[in-house]
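U., I forgot to send this yesterday:
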Amino acid sequence: MKQCEQETLTAIVLAAFGTTYPATLEPILAMLHDVKERYPDVPVRLAFTSNIIRRKWHERAGDANYRRVHPAIPKQIYTVKNVLGAMADLQNEGYRRIVVQPALIVDGEEYRDLAAYVEALGAIRTSKPQWQPFEKVALGKPLLGAFDHREQLNGLVRALKPDIDAARAVDATLVYMGHGNEHMAQGAYYELEILLRRAYGMPVCIGLVEGLPDVETVREKLAAAETRKVLLKPLMYVAGDHARNDMAGDEEDSWLTLLEKDGYQVTPVFEGLGQNPAVRAIFLELLKQAAQQAAIDL
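Result:
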């Protein structure tokens, strides 16, 4: 009877890229809290997809002085694993139905790699079905969705209204810096920019660290908008390294430096999307949808 009960155990894995900045852990931990609050009877594990970030936290785990200076950092951050490790631990504990929800923005290479790992584990078939490591595995969509993402985009447009209001209050153009990549999923950024402009009737520019639209695209649009003030924010889950360096660093090629040289009065805001409760609510809905589509009861 006990073995039978174990075969139906369900768990959730929250997969984030991660961050090395203690101050920017807040949106990740907030999402973890939201998921646990929504599903109090389901164990939730955190995974970081970045190898570099995981190694950094593992190194800090052995640094007694660092841990003493940062007493608020949860133990699970120091021992965080990738999604493979998190799912392996859950399987070893008897959980055979897993829902993985990424805290990622687009269906780009990071999401595709995550999907490859999750789908590969879910596809394992043993000679006897009862020994399969997983009965069901589900993967939630990223924030900007995959193929049928217009409804998600509209939801994000509504969730970003506080940013619009903040820019409008100081008569500034809202500029978002997304991560992007050089290979895929850039169209969703263009769509989001168009929808934000149409919904709120004010100039909004989205540029990316990698790929197009880039900072030069943003500069061209700002020149056409004839604006002199810019509210600059990261369109990323956390305001981590890219926000502090590529977006608003002291280097000559940072967006802040470039825009100030162009004559704009720039106000950078170090606030990731994950700090917006309405954005986190979208991720919760995506988690729910993934479970339902896989017929996994949470």
